[in-house]
Every structure is written in structure tokens, then in C-alpha cells.
Amino acid sequence: MADRAERELERLRSAVSELSSLNEIASAINSSMSVDKITSIIVDKCLKHTNASQGAIFMLEEEQPEGGGGKFTTFVRKMQDSREDIPFHLNMSLAGWMLKNKRILVINEDDGEHPLASLDFAKLGIRSIVASPLLSKNGLIGVLAIFNKRGEEGFTSNDQRFLGIVGTQCAQALEGARLYVQERKLIAINEELGIAKSIQEGFLPKPELIKQIKHCYGMNIPAKAIGGDFFDIVDRGNDEVFLSIGDVVGKGVPAALLMANTQAVLRSHLHNKTKLDLADLAGNLNHLVCQFTNPGQFITGLFGVLDNKNKKFSFVNAGHHMPLIANNGKIIKQTMEPDLVFGVMQGISFKLNEIEVPENSTMLLYTDGISEAENETEEQFGDDRIDKLLLEAAAEPADKICEKFLEELNIFKGKADQADDITIVVAKT
User: Which residue of 74, 157, 159, 424 has the lowest C-beta tally within 10 Å?
Assistant: First the structure.
């Protein structure tokens, strides 16, 4: 009878200890802690409760390889004996077993028949293991593993149950901590993108300033938060307007930085009130782009001066679409070939082109975001639609023509995503 009472008392003591440890873990962790902090608390409490000497939490990498598989990264490793040189070369073996089985693993004897028999336990300094999967609502996120139970008994069924409870209890906390870190990173990135977007917008002409030049207008709609397209419309006086449009290869911050530098170079030459040497300006711009960009970065660009008095447009074209002119119900297309794009070769020369823009004409400059815009069936907007739309809208004011193009593009692409920046410049004579 006394033995039975003693066993019951020991069972109660074990249950109280288990509940106490679980309560300590629950009270100690919260989602605003770092993953490292949470894992450290969990491992410490588990080692104390199971009377083991070593423990680790292996977190599954968040980016999983295509087709499955998985790889674990050790976030925390605790050792409470003198064997601090024990290596844990079992990430991949443990990862593979847990990904497949998703249940408690217990090994108390290296008999060569357990699931990790391919590992040399003696060399690794491992005598016994109990490991629990960390399962969140999104699946397996990691493994809690405790090594080397003190004494000869090995890990018990109570140890298994305890680790299983801890794994279930803590998986959500670890997932929350990881999501919290991701959220903070995303907020920081969005803040930086917001600043970059504001800076980039500062390099584009303000709508209220463009409207003062009554016969010209332009629009830029980036595909992402920030883009690589640019345009400019600057009144130089004497019925002359500087027009530019360009498309930096790529998207995002690198393209936006190159776009801003290009705008700065072009504008720096506009303060000179004398006649612009457009070919020389193109050569200088090409030199700078080649010098300060990585291989593979380049710009298609077109810029020039519209002389409204003499009805001529003088321009340089570096690999960009030629201007389209609508006049008297017809589209006038240019036959000259563009020069090489900016940024692929030092020392090249650019030719000056000059075309007539007859009275009552509408000239259109645009980027690939218009011509190559795709609908849900991957059909492109294309040159024919651009020609047709320009003829239909040619009698409208410049700003209304730009708006009409954007409206028709949105109708055309339907629910398809905008894949590229959209930029358009319209000038009327």
C-alpha cells in the first residue's frame, strides 16, 4: 500500500512539475520577442525539466526549394555539460525524417536500427535523443530536439509527452515571432520605397507646371512602387520646348536611381540659354551611363527641341521608338534608324535628326509600356492600336489625349497586371 501511495505521489509531483514548466514557458514568451529569445527560453526550460544536457531548435528555412524538400537552420543551441565541442551534424537527417513523419522521435540506444542510424552517434557525442515537430497552421516550421538524458534511464514517455506539448504550444509563438520580424522588415522596406518614390517623383515634371505649356503634356504610371521610365517637358522660351522620354532597363530601385541620374544630367544642360548641342549632350550622357552602371544596364531614350515657330522637331534617338505624328487624318512615321542605346559602349557618336511637324499636328512619344501592354490572353496593344487611337484623339488637347490612351489601355488589358512602366508625351503644333 505504501509503495502504491509513493508511486501516486511521484506521479503527482511529476504532473505538477510538468504543468509548472509549461506555465513558465507560456508566461515567458510572447510574439514581440525575437525568435532567438523565444527559442532560448524554450530550450532552457526543456533541458531543466527533462534533466538533459543539450538541446536545440532547428527552424525550417522560410524559402522552400521547388518540388518540396527542406533545410533546417539552427537558431539556438544549449549545452549544459563540459562537452561544448559536440557538433550537431544532423540537420538534414532530422529535417528529412520530420518532414516525412511529423511526429515525436525518441532514440535511447544507438542500436543501428533507428531512423538516424546513418549518423555516427558516438562521434557526435550523442547517447539519446527526443525530438518533437513544431507544427503551426502553415505546417512544419521546425524541430525541438533534446539530447543526452542524464542517467541510464533514457528519455521516458513523460519526456515525450512533455516535449510534444511544448512543441504544440510554442510553434505558434515562434511562427508569430517570425511573422513579426517579417512585418517589421516589410514596414521598413515600404518606408524606404516611399522615400524613393517621393524622390523619383521630384525628378518628373509637375502636372501644374506642364499645364502652363498649353500644347504639351505627359504622364508616367510606374508598374511597381517606383519605376525606370522618365519624361520631361521644359519651356525654353522663344516657342521652343525641350521634350525627353526614356526607359531604363529593369524595374525597382536600381532602375529608379539610373532614371534620376539621367534626368539630372539632361536638366543640367537646360540652364544654358544658347542653342543646345543635342548630339554632344547624348554623347556625355552615354559616357556617364557607361561609366557608372553595371553591365547589362542601359537606357533607351529620345530627347530634343520642338521649335513651334518653325514647326520642326530636332532630336537624338538612342534605341527608342520614333515619334509618331498625326496630321490631316494620317499618321506620319519616321524612316530613319535610331542610334545605339545609352550605356552599352563608350565613345559612340549620336546623330541629330530633324523632322517637320506641320501646323495642326499632334506628335506622340511613348515607351514600351504602351505598345507591349498585354491583355488576359497575352495579346499586345501593338502599333496598329496606337496609330488608330492617335488619329481618333488627335483633335483633343494634349492632356486629354494622354488620358484617352491610359483609359483605352486599362480597357484593353482588363484584369491583366501592368507588366511595365507606362509613359506618354504629347505635343501639338
Answer: 157
